[in-house]
Write a structure and sequence with these properties.
By secondary structure, the chain is an all-beta fold. It has one domain: Immunoglobulins (Immunoglobulin-like, Sandwich), CATH 2.60.40.10. Helices cover about 0% and strands about 55% of the residues. It contains no helices and eight strands. It has strands at about 1-5, 15-20, 20, 25-30, 30-35, 45-50, 55, 60-65. Strands 2, 3, 6, 7 and 8 form a five-stranded antiparallel sheet that branches. A three-stranded antiparallel sheet has the order 1-5-4, with no helix packed on it. β4 and β5 form a beta hairpin. The protein is elongated and about 40 Å long.
């Protein structure tokens, strides 16, 4: 599962945390990052991005449960 973050000055991002878990990410442009959501239980989590300018304010990502078969 992936999700997109948009903002400014993202081209030099060095870390993305989903909750307390580091997440893989790809910088697409200075305003667009695609994040690989780490697995875990369903519910809201804070997401932060670290750049040379500091750590962003947290934004909420709502992880949903995997579909049952």
């Amino acid at each position: 599962m992936t999700f997109t973050l948009t903002g400014t000055n993202l081209a030099q991002a060095t870390a993305v945390l989903v909750g307390a878990t580091p997440a893989g990410f790809t910088v697409v442009s200075d305003s667009h990052i695609v994040v690989d959501a780490p697995p875990g239980t369903a519910g809201p989590l804070d997401v932060t991005v670290t750049t040379p300018g500091g750590i962003s304010s947290p934004k909420t990502y709502n992880r949903v449960a995997a579909p049952g078969i």
